[in-house]
Each structure stands twice: as structure tokens, then as C-alpha cells.
């Protein structure tokens, strides 16, 4: 199983447990979280890039991996990926580097 | 060994190492950190909920697990736990979701 | 005009501008943000305390002031307020102190 | 003087003081910080949106204002701006709202 | 009144209000916060630099100003100050720049 | 293989992958990140302490381990290490404790 499939599967399993306990607020928030990345005035492609850079500067590995997966589906190129990472690196500083390392490894394995 | 016992044991072992090196400030801080959650004007129960939501929005898995353990001992219900998580989710946004996933898994295994 | 009224008025005026530009996601999120603090398995009183400590450790003055206002309406006592601040101080460290200073000043002026 | 001009002028004045003390690292970092937003595999327009959402979730008013200014020059529309803010709001939670309020006020005054 | 005196006075006044409400935890924490910067295995001078860089990467203007004041008393040179800021800038990224701007302005006015 | 060697090796391997994708900004930033810790007005020894405390309050385990390694090479003593951790603990609060635990374990194994 690729690191990409592994990530998806674990995420799905945990989401199922979350949903067993989730009240109205949690469920509605999860809906908003899905819908906010859909095509609108901005394309889904651009929004996934926004989600990725936000996840990078907030240094959340799971969120980074999730949006990298989406970027793979949006056919983001290697050069575009490097530039997204660069913006995050300059805004967020060297503290983002360990996350960039793990992110680029995931990218390299799955693209 | 349950995930709850495993967590406690590892925490204890690491605390022992920390205490071998700890000077006065570290030791006193650890005391404050224990005492701040004791019954006072607010009950220990309420304070553990405060500690949990603070840990969630600061996105610290170990701190979340610690306070979840305490919440188990304070007989927090599933519905109360969902509402604590919901407040953290709304305040802290989707970046807290991976932590909520791991937290609810721990809750589900140990309650 | 008290600092409490001033805060409310400015917040209201800015919210009106936000709503002129707000799409569906923003509007729905604002609804969730209102509803999550309502009575449920946990009382509104407890939830406002959760919101306050979360705002304190994330160091957002406006959010702190907002929840302090709500705590005033929930008749939180001085001793309870000190204990909420203490939990936030221990979890979040000295970096929260400037926010505690401004918060307690607001509390002192408006309680 | 508009809030936009005021912002630019103060920023310029402070940068001059910073440069009087700046060594090689600071100067080179400032160069990188300018260059990273230039047209490349991604357009300057997209990069400014990335910078804006990163600034929003990290909750830095000055950085938000700076990138909003750049977005004005890139002819970002009201709908696009709302969607950038929405992504930041969902990722970063209600703690971003006070920054969104001030940002949208700036947008409303200067667009 | 210089910006340095103004800062000290306001801080003192607010601390007095905080102490009127402070319970045991808050008081003890304030003591630890004073003592941790005193001469020990590391000099007070080095510890103030540590406090300054920590405040910078956590982006707390009041904390930065406080430690800059202490650095002035420890006769930190302009070159040393630039290097402390540089480490913070590289670790924390461009998001620290608005804080560096305000910090260096304070330094320039008071050194 | 010691935890120290293991850390270095993994870091190196990941850096190689990062460099395969790195554009000019990323490469230049990595250079700045190396150079900022070199002897200047402040010694490399002091700068590594600054880097360590900054990494601790930002709660990045990899960054903490990296700077601990450098501190080992600069012959930082146990007492000095405890005082660096103490400053980070007081500034950053109990949320730093899980990172301190892992850091001191690494220190204990490798000093």
C-alpha cells in the first residue's frame, strides 16, 4: 500500500469514529470544511494551494498531506509545488522545514 | 496494555529523566502545573475541561491525552466531550481536526 | 461610554461590513460560532469559560474581551475569573501575561 | 491620507530604521521576501493570495494589510477576496475573525 | 516621557490591577518569571537574549519590549541585537518582520 | 545506531529529496539558515542556545533535536541545558513540557 493510500485509509477510519460522537456543530463544520475548497470565484485548484500553504505555516503534517493529495489530483507541477512551499518557508521560517521535508518526501513518493 | 496505561507509563518514565536534570524553576513549575487543576472556586472537573480545550487549540497531542485521561476520571460524558471538542474546533478551526481524530480514538478506546 | 459598550459597538460596526462581503461559508461559520456556546450537555456558562481560556492561550485580545463580556453576563465571580486566567497562564506561559493584564483591566472596569 | 497610504508610509519609515541596523542575514532575507512573490511557475497574483491566507491563519494584521494591498494591485475581486478569507476562516477558526474584520474594513475603504 | 518610561509605567499600573485579583498560582508564576532570568549557570545577559528571541518568534510585542529594555541594561550592542533579531527572523520567518520593525524602532529611540 | 546518528541520517536523506525539488528561494533560505548560527558579534555557542529556545517555544521536536545536537558540540553543560529549558518553559508554559520530556531524553542518551 502506498503512503498515499495508507494516509487515506487511516483518515477514513478515524473520521468514522469521530462521526459516532459528533454533534450538530462538528457535523456542520465538517461540511463547511469540504465545501470551502470547491470551485467558486476561485478554482478548486487555487483553493487547494491556499489550503496547503495555510497548513504548512500552521505546521500540521496531516493537513499538509491531505492538501498535497488534493494537489496531486489537480495536477500541480513540481515547479508549482516548490513555489507553494517557498512562500510557506519565507512566511513561516525555518520552523517549517521539518514539515517541508516530510511533505516533499510524500510528494516524491506519490506524484 | 491499554493505550491509556501505555500513555501513563511513558509519561512517568520521561518525567523521571526530566527530574534528574530539573533545577528549581522546572520543579516549581511542575508543582504549579499539578495544583492549578485542583478544586477551588472552580471544580477540578471544570478545570480539566479548561485544560483540555486549551490543549486542543494549541494542538498538543500529549497534553490532550493527559487531560482526556483526567476527564475520564471526572466522569465526563460522551455528549460533554463532544461539546468540549466542538468549542475547540470552532475556535481553532480545521487545523485542530487531526488532533480531534486522535483524541476521540483515545476516548473511544478508554472510556 | 464604558470600555464594554465601546467594544460592543465597534464589533457590531465591523461585523456589518464583513456581512456585506460574506459568502455562504462565512455566514454559516458565524452561525456555528454563535450556536456552539449555547446551553447543551454543558451549560452556556461553562462553554464561555472554555471559549475564554481558548482565546487566552491563543492570545487574541478581541476574543478574550468578547468572552469576558459573556462571563460578566454569566455572573462569573472574581475568584472564578482568576482561576480561568491561571489555567491559561500555566498552559500558555508568560507570553500570555500581557493579554491577562489587558483582560483583568477590562474585568476591573466593567464588573 | 487614505488608510492605504498611511500604511505604506509607516511601513517605509520603519523599514528605513531596520535597514540602519540590518546585517547580511536580515538584508538577504528581505530580498528573498520580495522575490518569492514574483511571477514564476505560479503567477504573482496567485502568490499574493497564498501570502494573504498564510498571514491570516498566522494572525498578523500588518502582513494581512500588506498582502491585501498587493491583491488590490492584482485586481482581485470582492468574491475572490471573500473566498480567500473563507479558506483562512475554516482552516484557522473563529480566532481569525477579529483579523478578518479589520482586513475587510481595509478592503472596503481602499478597493 | 520616553517610550521606555511610558512602557514601564503602563506595565507597572496594569500589574497592580492583576495583583488585586491574583491567587496563589498567578503570584507564584510571576515569581518564577522574575527568577528565571537571574544569573545562574547562564548569565542574566544570556538569559535576557533567550527571553528576547523566544518573545520574537512567539510574536508578542510587549514581551519583546520588556526584554529589549533588559538588554539595554545588559549593554547588548547594536551588532548583538541585530544577530538576535536575525536568529528570530530565520526561525520564525517574515511573519516576525512587523515585530522586528517595532522592536528596532524602540531600540533606536532608547539605546 | 544512537538516536543522535539516526536523527542526522534521516535528516540528511530528507534534505537530499528536498534539494531535488528546491528552487532558488529554498536554496538561498537554507544557506541563510546555516550561516545565521555562525560566530559573529555573538558566538556560535550563544546562537545555538537562541535557536534551541526559539525551537522549544515554537514546539518543533525536529528543530529542538537539531539544536540540542549543536549544543552537545558546543559543550553546553547539564546546568546550562536545564536553564535554557527553564526559560522556554516559563515563556511557553506547560504546553512545552512534552517537548522538554523528549528533548531531555535525547540529551540524556547522547551527552
Topology:
The structure is a homohexamer of 111-residue chains.
Chain A: H1 3-21, H2 24-35, H3 44-57, H4 61-73, H5 78-92, H6 97-110
Helix pairs in contact in A: 3-4, 3-5, 4-6
Describe this structure in words.
The structure is a homohexamer of 111-residue chains. The first copy, chain A, is an all-alpha fold. Chain A is 78% helix and 0% strand. In chain A, helix 3 (44-57) runs antiparallel to helix 4 (61-73) and helix 4 (61-73) runs parallel beside helix 6. The longest helix of chain A is centred in the N-terminal third of the chain and has 19 residues, at 3-21. Chain A is globular. The model of chain A has no long low-confidence stretch (mean pLDDT 97). The C-D interface holds C 11, 14-15, 17-18, 20-23, 25-26, 29, 33, 54-55, 58, 60-63 and D 59, 78-79, 81-83, 85-86, 89-90, 94-95, 97-98, 100-102, 104-105, 107-108.
**String of helices and strands of chain A:** HHHHHH
Which two chains have the most extensive interface, and how many residues on each? A-D, 31 and 31 residues
- Residue windows where pLDDT falls under 50 for at least 5 positions of chain A: none
> How many strands appear in the DSSP assignment of chain A?
0
Large-scale geometry of chain A: globular
Percent of residues in beta strands of chain A: under 5%
**What kind of sheet is the major sheet of chain A?**
none
Average pLDDT, all residues of chain A: 97
Structural class of chain A: mainly alpha
Radius of gyration of chain A: 15 Å
Number of helices of chain A: 6
Assembly form of the protein: homohexamer
Amino acid at each position: 500500500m502506498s503512503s498515499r493510500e495508507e494516509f487515506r485509509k487511516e483518515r477514513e477510519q478515524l473520521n468514522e469514529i469521530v462521526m459516532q460522537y459528533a454533534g450538530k456543530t462538528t457535523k456542520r463544520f465538517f461540511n463547511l470544511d469540504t465545501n470551502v475548497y470547491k470551485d467558486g470565484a476561485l478554482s478548486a485548484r487555487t483553493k487547494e494551494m491556499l489550503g496547503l500553504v495555510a497548513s504548512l505555516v500552521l505546521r500540521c503534517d496531516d493537513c499538509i498531506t491531505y492538501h498535497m493529495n488534493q494537489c496531486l489530483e489537480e495536477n500541480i507541477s513540481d515547479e508549482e509545488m516548490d513555489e507553494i512551499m517557498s512562500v510557506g518557508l519565507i512566511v513561516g521560517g525555518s520552523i517549517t522545514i521539518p514539515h517541508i521535508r516530510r511533505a516533499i518526501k510524500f510528494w516524491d513518493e506519490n506524484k
